[in-house]
Records
---
Amino acid sequence: MLEFESFHKKFKKETVLQMDQWKLEEGIYWLKGENGAGKSTFLKSLSGIFPFDGDVKLDGTSLRKNKLEQRRWFNYGEAEPTYPNFLTGQELLSFVEDVKDGTNELAFYLTTVFQMQSALNEKVGTYSSGMKKKLSLILTFCGSPKWILLDEPLITLDVASVQVLLQVIEQMFLNGTSFIMTSHQPFTLETVQTQTIEIKNKKLELI
Ligand SMILES: Nc1ncnc2c1ncn2[C@@H]1O[C@H](COP(=O)(O)OP(=O)(O)OP(=O)(O)O)[C@@H](O)[C@H]1O
């Protein structure tokens, strides 16, 4: 369970998100909102990339007071990932596995099904946008996150890769990981019901 208490995110004087009290159970959520509503800001705040005021508790533990745990519990996948061009995919994967504390069979599985094995030995600067997106998704599944936050996970993926990704998401959810995903592109899961959250007037609402 996530509990938001006086959660407030602003840039300079501009408030983007403000929720006095809000709760979210484990699940798979589709986060909607118009351009600029605050979807990426919300995911980045939850994952520890952006600071925020107030607090968010995960199963009663404050994220603001436990920043290391926050980074282990929440993995964030960017909409348009960028990496240093001079690193290989494998160097990035080894680094993320190290900081996220654990190798991951799922990352290996995704590397295989996304047909990224040989690309991992190449420098990221040579990747197409779809390859960068696949690498980013592989990195996002590293470690043992309780929540995975995916910003536009489907963009630039080919049809087969979208199906693989959705199946992996379902399987991970059944194994205990929750998801929040933004997507301007509709998607359906085969066996798990997704719920929808909308950002309206700087607040998140379950609809
Ligand atoms: N680093 C930043 N510095 C200042 N303002 C920012 C920053 N990041 C986002 N914003 C502002 O916060 C607001 C929400 O942006 P955000 O990227 O979260 O929207 P979004 O819902 O993800 O939009 P989109 O659907 O276009 O991706 C926007 O007004 C944006 O200009």
Note: The chain has a mean pLDDT of 93.
---
Amino acid sequence: MSDRSPRNRAPQLKADPVRRVAYKVIRQVTAEGGYANLVLNKALRDARLSGRDAAFCTELVHGTLRWQGTYDAFLARSVSRPLADLDPELLDLLRLGAHQLLNMRVDSYAAVNEMVTLTRSELGQKRTGLVNAVLRKISQRTLDQWISTVAPTPEEDLLGFLAVADAHPRWVIDAFDRALTDGPGAAPPGEAVRELERLLAADNDPPRVTLAARPGLADLDELVAAGATPARWSPYGAVLEGGGDPGRIEAVATGRAGVQDEGSQLVAIALASAKVDGDDTQWLDLCAGPGGKSALLAALVQQRDGQLTAVEPLKHRAELVRSNLRAIPGDHKVLVGDGTKPTWPAGSFDRVLADVPCSGLGALRRRPEARWRRTPEDVVELRPLQEALLDSAITSVRPGGVVAYVTCSPHPDETRAVVDAVLSRRDDASLEDARPLFPDVPDLGEGPDVQLWPHVHGTDAMYLALVRRS
Ligand SMILES: C[S@@+](CC[C@H](N)C(=O)[O-])C[C@H]1O[C@@H](n2cnc3c(N)ncnc32)[C@H](O)[C@@H]1O
């Protein structure tokens, strides 16, 4: 963020409206479990912030949330009582101040004064002394100096150092390290640490907005004419380099194109392009909400005169699937139901997507708060459902048909471990090499499953295993 003189001005009596909006958004995320992107977009609209003010507010919110755990480690050294004893609203103000002092080019004097003024207006005069004192302490060191103060040295504990320096919970770093060491597309021996560092850095960069032209309804030229650049591998993908509101593009507004990460497009295309002999008209999306992949699959099966059935247990998410399918011709069905309890006969489908609920650790770039909200227990708790859904997907596909097991997480306990466990109990299904279904995509390793990475492919960390029913 560049130095913005209006933000570096002398102390104000009234709180800066942009910082106030940022603070309110952060409160809704940390106290009420809101999703930063949704809450922020609404708050920017309600406060009519645009241009530089909107960009400043976005950086305040995203940066503060992304770096939360690291700032807490610094704050714990700067406050005389345990952080857990601080009022949560005060802690959020301190985190917001720390972000401006350590990661944005805001003048320290201005940052502290603005936060004191904001404290006075939001929490009353009594709290201003503590905020002033703590933020002055924070301002006495640079980010690197703070990291050396609180983190283990890289020689002592490299992953512990990276957890602080790159703002990821330690358990997440351990999982990424495992995936990069022995998962599909593992880094060459000795390279895993460098890869891990690149991955963590990529997670701290906001992703570019990628669009998918729905086959038969829009083509890439139309998106390019609207200012997008063709994506690297998806024949339907285009990137809005400068960001901006995708809804202004007519094809997106009318549902002929959608916003979809290139990795999500690639896994759906991979399922659609696996070789299947015989009938190929009945496709199932077993975990469909909100329906990004359903839309791409429905458009593709429509070109084969076929039909997509999409299943989603949550009514409001099933509505989102319907809305995503609204522009796609054909007799596609959206069922509100539990994918582990099929209401259709076994072997009804030629292709099945099981894009199972997961920790989402592959999409940390787009969800700034997610890394601190998820816990290792989430991964453990999701496991039985993931296994049951893959099992049900295999039962739902006919002999000779294929299942794509997909997660937007590279955590080994959600990817290979699930596939191995399910296949070890079934003698009617086996794993196939999925790499040829990703033509031209580099660095897919030894297979047979595929792991995409933000730092290698610029996509979310999508995982795909291709299972064929015998
Ligand atoms: C990773 S998301 C799917 C994303 C979707 N394929 C897309 O591209 O938009 C997983 C979905 O599975 C749904 N889900 C949860 N439990 C389920 C179950 N028992 N059966 C089917 N779907 C389930 C969740 O509600 C969520 O919408």
Note: The chain has a mean pLDDT of 95.
